[in-house]
Amino acid sequence: MLGEPIELIVADHQNKPDIASGIARKWFDVDKVDMIADLINSSIAFSVSQLAKEKDGIVIIKAARISKTKTARGDTPGLTIRGVKTAVVEVPMNFPLGTSAAIVRAAPLLLVDLLTEEGVTGRTYLFCYRRSGAKAVAALLEDAVDVVRGQQAAPVKIGQLLGRRFALLGVAGLARMALAALDGAIWDALARAAGLPLANFLGGEVRSVPAYNSSGLGLMAPEAAADEAELLLQRGFKAVKLRLGYSDLAGDLAVTRAVRARLSDTVEIFVDYNQALDLPEALKRGLALKQEGVAWLEEPIRHDDLIGYSRLAGKLALPVQLGENFDGPGQMAQALRASACDLVMPDYVRIGGVTGWV
What's the rounded Cα separation, in Å, for the pair 245 and 227? Predict the structure, then answer.
């Protein structure tokens, strides 16, 4: 609920949508002067209600203080869901991705803006595999928002409610993606309203983490793969991932060795088969790749063959990676109980959004 309107002057009009990050230079109401420190350190979030005027780079904005509600994570601004806007876009990829299943030249994305009554917008985006998938997810997302319109932006509670509402349809696949998008956008809105990075809002901290470049390196000739691997390291990455699944082991080894010979020993190489092999062939190639200094073996067989993965992980010294196709936390728990993998990489959309992760 919006409180008493407050008029303030904010410098740097390029950032006017984010009042909490502005610099308050003067309050027309001198009685509110003691609140300037709160505004600057972002402990109070504000919602833009009206842009009054702009002159010489100084913006006068009418804003309103957002009421706060107590949650499990402390004092956070109370937000009310108003609606959602979506846009489907296709982004050309600088490095087309050729796998054993298909060649991907553009990324179909669904852009999501979750609107609240308080003026705070939560944002997220999803990689939807196909343009038709993005359109379908958008329709399901709009349906979900219709159900919770006017409710408090409480992601866990809303997730439970929508899980029941979508039970007959099945909370999997496209429906899972739609609910994950809503979940992520709600968390983003809450963090924005609190003036915090999402990591801090969740109780963590913002810090650097190791990352690998997952672009490109699809099925291609050995020297072409080596050339592309060098390009992918130019932004400071220390690891790359090869897509393998050539017609025989010799093809996989030729590409792996060409890339390994071109890169520094400090650069890690991961391999991803995109579920191209059967179990005997996966075991054969996994044993061979261990000798090539590969760091992990990702999805060599069907992602849902947990018995097969358990056998594979038990026989290979090379770590087995699984998880981007886990449909919700339950499937991840099943894989771990079955000792089906050594490493997991849950996908934000398929695992159930931010709530699924935490």
Answer: 19
Domain 222-357: CATH superfamily is Enolase-like C-terminal domain (3.20.20.120)
Q: Is the pLDDT of residue 32 over 60?
A: no
Per residue in 286-310, pLDDT (tens digit) is 999 999 999 999 999 999 999 999 9
Tens-digit pLDDT profile for residues 333-345: 999 999 999 999 9
The dotted CATH code for 77-201 is 3.30.390.10
Distance (Å) of CA 70 to CA 67, 118, 201, 264: 10, 17, 14, 52
- Name the band, by pLDDT with cuts 50, 70 and 90, for residue 76: low
* Residue whose structure tokens are 């190791």: 210
